[in-house]
Structures are given as C-alpha cells and as structure tokens.
Amino acid sequence: MTPHDAPPPPAQGPAQAAAVRAADRAHVFHSWSAQGLIEPLAVAGAEGSYFWDYDGKRYLDFCSALVYTNIGYQHPKVVAAIQAQAAKLTTFAPAFAIEARSEAARMIAERTPGDLDKIFFTNGGAEAVENAVRMARLHTGRPKVLSAYRSYHGGTQTAVNVTGDPRRWPSDTGTAGVVHFWAPFLYRSPFHASTEEEEGARALRHLEDTIAFEGPGTIAAVVLETIPGTAGIMVPPPGYLAGVREICDRHGIVFVLDEVMAGFGRTGAWFAAEHFDVVPDLLTFAKGVNSGYVPLGGVAISPEIAATFETRPYPGGLTYSGHPLACAAAVATIEVMAEERVVERAADLGATVLGPGLREIAERHPCVGEVRGTGVFWALELVRDRETREPLVPYNASGEQNRPMAAFAAACKESGLWPFVNMNRTHVVPPCNVSEAEAKEGLEVLDAALSVADEYVL
Q1: Is 296 within 8 Å of 123 (Cβ atoms)?
Q2: Which of 128, 134, 167, 171 is nearest to 151 (CA)?
Q3: 218-262 pLDDT per residue, tens
Q4: Total-model pTM
Q5: Are 153 and 223 in contact (CB under 8 A)?
Q6: What gap in Å lies between CA 148 and CA 131, rounded to an integer?
Q7: Average pLDDT, the chain
Q8: Mind giving me the DSSP string for 185-254?
Q9: CA 61 to chain centre
C-alpha cells in the first residue's frame, strides 16, 4: 500500500513536531526508559510498511511497531471493520454474548493447533501469560512454573517473573514461584553441543534434571515461547518441543506455548507450533491477532483445562475482555490474512528473499556471527570476533558500552530504515505482507549499515 495520508507541508511540519514532542515530554511516562534520556520521534502518519515524521521523512518499518503490525499500518478493510463496529456497538461488558466476540473466538479456535477450542480474551500478551499461569496452577494445584532464561513473556507481575531476560531483575522478588532453565541455542550452547541433535537432546536432559531436583509434584507448568522473539529468534532444534511435551505429559505438568510474537503468520504458519507438530495445553496470543489496531490478547485452552472450570468458577477476569472493537478488528484481520494469503506470503518471503538475502549479507560482513529465523522472523547475531563469538556489545549493555549497536541503529535510521535492535542483535521483522521490493530495500540499507558495525570488529 502507498501512503494516502500525505506528510504535512514543510512549513507546518516543524511546528507540529515541536508541539507533539513538547506535550509528550511534559506528560507521557514511557515504558522501559529513563525519562530524561529519551527523545521519541514525533510520528505524523503510517501506511503499509512505512511511517513518516512531520518533516516528511519516511521510514521502512523493520520492527512492525513492536512486532505486531503483521498486515501493516492502516489496512483499509480492518479500519472499516472497526468503524462499522463502533457504529453498531462500541463496547459491552464481557459477561454477555456479543457477535464480534463470538466470531473472533470461533475464527481463532479454527486456527489454533489441536483442539484448543476455548478462548479467554485479554487486553494483551502479558495478561494472557498471567492468566495461563493462573489456569495451570489452579488446574494442577501446584505452585511452581518453569521457563527459559532467554525469554520475554510480558511486564506484569507474574509475566515479568516468568520472563528470563534482564527486564525481570528489578521486579524479581524470588518469591513468585518461577524457576528458570536453559533452552536450546546451539550458537551459544550451554551444553557444549556441536550439532542441533546434541543441543536438543542435552537441553531435554537438563530440563529433566531441573524438574527432578525441583520436585515434579510441585511444578504446575513449563512455559516456553515456541520460537523466542525478543530474546533472539532461536528456532528450537527438531524434536525439542515434542520432547518437552512428552516430559510434561509424564509428570502431569501443563505445557504452555507463548505465541504472542510468533503467532498469526509471523513464522510462515498461523502458529509456530505447526512447524513442530506440537499441541500445548494452553497457548497465549496477542499482537498479530488484529495487527495491534486495538489491544487484544488471549489464551487458547485445551478441553482438559476448560473442564476444570466447568462447574468451578474461574477466578479471573478483565473489564475489557473481548472488547467489541478489538474483536471486530481481529475478525477483519484474519479475513484479510486468508484472502490475501498473508501466511503463505510470509513463508515464501522468508524462503526466497529474507533468508537468502541475509545470508548473502552475512558473507560480506565480519560482524555477523549468525543468521537465523523463518518466515518474516529473523535475527542477525552481531559479534566482535567470529572465532570466539564474542558479542559486539556485552550482555545488557548500555551507555558507552552499547556504542557499536547505537551507531549501527543510527546508520539505519539515517537511511530511512527503522531497525529492531536488542542487545547484540538486529532483528528483521517487517510486516508479514511486506512486498518483495520493500524487503529488498530494507536489506540494502541493512547491508550498508552493517559496515558501521564492522568497524568495531577485532
């Protein structure tokens, strides 16, 4: 799609931008930020795979906002569906049967793996994880949850404790009943493995040992991102998730797959679990379910866990659960994805453009240690030394230590590409319906910007 909301005239642009930035800095408290050290870009509009500022500078969004605009910005059919729902019924309490809510649940259940046919709606991914953990604990009567160190599951109290990355640290009281373990990641193997097969087998043995020493009868759930997102897009080795499924079955542990980022076409399948032929007991989703146009998330629930609450009330709920505007947006988004073959296009783009293009780029840049991903879900691991695999910046770097990644990101933005940068990685996560030409445009900018990162290689 091409922009239909033209950037403002240059004479108006700077004044508008200044006013927007001033109001933001005076009143908006931003997440994950030191408030006095940030200067948010003032955005004037967005369309398809692009957004632009008040000076008319356009950026190709290789972040998909926060990896959720799976059908791009301002898709006219979804905008029209939100408008139509607003005219019909803007909002209604969650205890009632509402057409948009029922239809969204039906369409999501049709696409989830296996028989996950009950949908509990939330406002986003973190609340989905919160409720999935609560369901698992109530279903099993057990307190503990196991999750991976390289993971992100949300910023609310339980979800942030289930998270493995450093954003957990300030909120980790050590009393949340969460135990972390190492999931497979061959490039930085904690198991001294040399093949994917070894990595998968040794990771499963490590999980078995962790369960044994924690006490199987104390563990309610194992929570995993099917393919970890913010933590690095590490596709699990063949057989690993099936092995986790078998371990959970053997010990009566609920298996939760977090598909908040990987779901709804991002990996070239409706849900990433399809790639591994695995069905969890609970599956969390959000983001791509309606391309983030109106906040929505949820939990898809197995019959066994749903039966636990057939005559026993589920002690949880949200005022805006299954909000009609959000659900109408989800229905329209899923319809658009089916009509425009967005999932199939994402798979094809990963196989024919993004994967080959990123590997070709890696050959030219000594700072690229590894390329990994699938569909429209890729990461480049940037290193100072390919032989030692020393990261380009230290783990959780900030300030001066993060200069190489900051310089790389600045080079991308200067050339009109908005990158997803986390620690020593850049992720390539454009909208699932990004065109081949747009994808190649982004790869060209990445190629040039990586020359900046090369300057820091030993």
Answers
A1: yes
A2: 167
A3: 999 999 999 999 999 999 999 999 999 999 999 999 999 999 999
A4: 0.95
A5: yes
A6: 18
A7: 95
A8: -GGG-TT--SSHHHHHHHHHHHHHHHHHHH-GGGEEEEEEESS-TTTT--PPPTTHHHHHHHHHHHHTPE
A9: 15
